[in-house]
Amino acid sequence: MTSSPSDEPEYDLAVIGAGAAGLAGAVTAAELGLSVALLDTAAHPGGQFYRHPAPALGATRPEALHHDWSTFDELRRRLADSDARYLAGHHVWTVVRTEPRRDRWEVHAATGADGNGERPVRVRARAVLLATGAYERQLPFPGWTLPGVVGAGGAQAMLKSGLVLPGRRVVVAGSGPLLLAVAASLATAGARVPAVVEASGYLGYARHPRALAADVHKLAEAAVHGTALLRHRVRLRTRSAVTQVHGADRVEAVTVSRLDRDWRPVPGTGRRIACDALAVGHGLVPQLELATGLGCATRRTQDGTSALDLDADQQTSVPGIWAAGETGGVGGVRLACVEGELAGVAIAARLRERPALTAGGRVRALRRRRDRMRAFAAVMAAAHAPGPGWSRWLDDATDVCRCEEVTAGRIREAVTDYGARDARTVKLLTRAGMGWCQGRMCGTAVACLVGEGQGAQLPPSPERRPLAVPVRLEMLAALAETAARENPPSKAPQPPG
Amino acid sequence: MRNPPDLIVVGAGVVGAACAYYAARAGLTVTVIDRGSVAGGTTGAGEGNLLVSDKEPGPELELALFSAELWRELAEVLPPRIEYEAKGGLVVASDGQAMAALRDFAARQAQHGVSTETVPGERLRELEPHLAPDLMGGVHYPQDAQVQPALAAAHLLRAAGDRLQLRLGEEVTAILTGPSGEVRGVRTSTGELHAPYVVNAAGSWGGELARLAGVELPVLPRRGFVLVTEPLPRVVRRKVYAADYVADVASDSAALQTSAVVEGTPAGPVLIGASRERVGFDRSLSVEALRRLAGQAVRLFPVLATVRALRTYAGFRPYLPDHLPAIGPDPRRPGLLHACGHEGAGIGLAPATGRIIAESLTDGQLPLDIAPFRPDRFGGGEAR
Predict the structure, then answer these.
(1) What's the CA gap between B263 and A230, in Å, rounded?
(2) Which of A390, A439, B209, B241 has the most crowded Cβ, counting Cβ within 10 A?
């Protein structure tokens, strides 16, 4: 089966995202008897974490770059054995209520985006599970647009899916636990990693011994990465940041500076490190477009991002819309699996009116594990939260929005001289965030620069992006007409009286 | 501390900015208060249409023609970053019946000062090379223009100079009145500010502000979606729309209506908008509105079929029951003036509105008869 009809039958549950959380949710719900559609943009399941080479690359051991590969194998097998309908290559651009009876959900996707046969697909369902994951947070600095600067997560994705390295001598920088994993992967795959540059200290963790002790797996993981780094003689510099990239056409070196507690560079501490690539990232940001489009409530996480506000059963503030994994706050693959399963059970209990499903020992145990891992994730987020002084890295000439080439100076001017008080108004006045990435790349930076002028906090809620992905106009035009709320407009202007 | 201003303008959208600009130019000191940012409401969700083409002869057309002149003057004074473009509009008809109605409509507009030029079908593509080939004809309106609304508002405020004080992120919670009911100033989240005049430029929320002053002004929101494409080289030169748009603008129906106005922007994206429907302050996405906007745009410009929409946004156009704005002093509450309810035409009508407000405050010569815009024309809600 290669094609899907443009109008799918109605399902009990539509799961969006076939990473760990979505897979776990879909197979759990299907095994409990729900009809399930699982939509994902990629050609094969796995999401970001279980990203693996296309079969054509002939990788003999894709699991070599992954821990927990057996969990993924198991989820894939259960998916194949289930009745869940897996819709690969489906780019979901919005989820709305059905009209005029607002008791169902309509998931709108585009398929065939890679070729010419782009078509609209509409999936109707009684419940929706959002498992849309996260994307990497970038904080700009002078030189960050130079070729050879890649996202840390991007570098790992390149390695996992194509087995390619971003360079031969790669500095890994930014903040967050992902950096250690990325550096270990790069070193194992043969790159020299002269330094891992981490902006926070690791002391933040020590303040929460109980949360740490409760997640033994995470500690073991860190130990594994640590050992790999030692073996490859990779140096970890904490409380430091790459504050400048050097090179004419591509990266030749970086300057690493010490940071004070607020992440302000300490003058005179800059040291140059030669390299031909820089993999940089500042943690992950939950991908919430579909959720905020539906009006789901969000909460601020410890590291200044927004995540969905969820109840004990993984339901959002909008009844019928559920979420699992990074959408509820970045917490890693094992948490995603637990939350996916919890959501699957809870949705089945709700739709089949079988509350007993969520009363068993398994669900109690899952909830305990989730709460433990969430507590750990909160400690981690707090430890790596960007300090307020990071924007001092930026000179006024640094491009902050790369799509529209808007500099830090223009953004500061919009705030101080033209009355912008939030990222949205900065966007209207400067075009920062209006380009292809729709602010995913520069959103954090713009919000921080706005705050710089008035000592304000980041905005309480993320910006709404009603189109989660770009959509061709002909595809929008080809959507089935909705019978609701309409009067055909008259053909000609109405001469008055 | 500064002295109290002569005038408080509530609302830092384009209408409030224009009121502040013309008042300051007339020598008054002005404080503009907004609970959000500059251009944070309807102004930031607009397309920047400065249209005369869609208006039938009557008071709104007079206002629009006067405003079009003022925009031309402002374009000389304000920096080019406001992206003012005197690009002209092109209204097209798909069949003979629509063309006949359009020609008739244009003829009546022409009697009231609108420049119009009928364009036969075969000449349409000289004006717009990418238009669909099968259209019956159209009317070219050289007075239609475009501006980037948020930048226009920001630069109007800046051009007001030292006489203006801007207070953002501050919400007006009460209108202060004196012993005989006259306006004395406002109370905000941070304290009281005194002034003998308060201008209601609160846009979609103008009805609420009027209520704070104890008067009724039935401003209602009308939701509009705009689709924004990826950046393109100039494929659309003017503001192009189908003749149906005129009927939609004047409509009283609550149902969803769309007739896409398609236009390019200096930054590259093509804007397609806007739908109109009365659903209260509901921002949830209407897939049906997008379907129609996209369909109509592609029918006009087939080349847009494979172009991607990057985003869409909804805004609320404030309107009054007779689809005319409320402009000028409110006889029910001395010292209160209104400048709101411009529906989808606020960007275009802002300068004329600002001039009227400034002239009313300085006993100057009113540029046109403002009786049709009287804020108390709907009756009810007398000052207590």
Answers:
(1) 59
(2) B241
- Closest-CA distance, A306 to chain B, in angstroms, reads 20
Q: Please determine, for residue A322, whether its predicted confidence score (pLDDT) is greater than 60.
A: yes
A-B CB pairs within 8 A amount to 184
Q: Containing domain of residue B128, as a range?
A: 89-142+220-319
Are B311 and B163 within one domain? Answer: no
Closest CA of chain A from B169, distance in Å: 8
In a shared domain, residues B298 and B227: yes
- The architecture that CATH gives domain A138-282 is 3-Layer(bba) Sandwich (3.50)
pLDDT tens digits, A423-464? 888 988 998 888 888 888 888 888 888 877 554 444 545 667
**pTM, 2 dp:** 0.87
**Residues B307, B257 share a domain:** yes
Q: Identity (one letter) of the amino acid at A402? A: R
Residue A132: enclosing H or E segment and its boundaries?
none
Please give the share of chain B, as a percent, with pLDDT higher than 90. Answer: 77
How far, in Å, CA of A330 to CA of A306, rounded?
A: 10
The answer to whether B227 contacts chain A (CB < 8 Å) is: yes
Angle at B54 between CA B52 and CA B57, to 5 degrees: 75
Q: Where in chain A is the domain with CATH 1.10.10.1100?
A: 394-454
Q: How far apart are the first and last CA of chain B?
A: 33
Q: Which of B302, B319, B336 is the last residue of a domain?
A: B319
Contact between B244 and A467 using a beta-carbon 8 Å cutoff: no
Asked whether residue A263 carries a pLDDT value surpassing 50, the answer given is yes
pLDDT reported for residue A64: 59
Relative to beta strand A105-111, strand A119-130 is antiparallel
Q: Is B257's Cβ below 8 Å from some Cβ in A?
A: yes
* Digit-coded pLDDT (tens) for B315-338: 889 999 999 999 999 999 999 999
Select the residue of A421, A476, A491 nearest B290 (Cβ to Cβ).
Answer: A476
Among B93, B256, B298, select the one facing A474 at the smallest CB separation.
Answer: B298
pLDDT exceeds cutoff 90 at A56: no
Instruction: Specify which of A334-348, A463-477, B269-283 reaches the highest per-range mean pLDDT.
Output: A334-348
B215 and B95, same structural domain?
no
Of residues A19, A380, A344, A101, the one with CA closest to residue A219: A380
For range A217-225, the mean pLDDT: 71
Contacts of B93 in chain A (CB under 8 A): 492
- CATH number, domain with residue B329: 3.50.50.60
Burial of residue A472 (number of CB atoms within 10 Å: 0-12, 13-18, 19+): buried
CATH number at residue B254: 3.30.9.10
Residue A300 and residue A307: Cα distance in Å, rounded?
6
User: Is B38 in the A-facing interface, judged by CB distances under 8 Å?
Assistant: yes
pLDDT tens digits, one per residue of B65-103: 999 999 999 999 999 999 999 999 999 998 888 898 899
Q: What's the CATH number for A394-454?
A: 1.10.10.1100
Distance from CA of A486 to the nearest CA of B (A): 5
At A4, is the pLDDT very low, low, confident or very high (cuts 50, 70, 90)?
A: very low
Interface predicted TM-score (ipTM) of this complex, two decimals: 0.88
Same-domain pairing of B161 and B231: no
8-state DSSP, A315: B
Cross-chain residue pair B37–A436, CB shorter than 8 Å: no
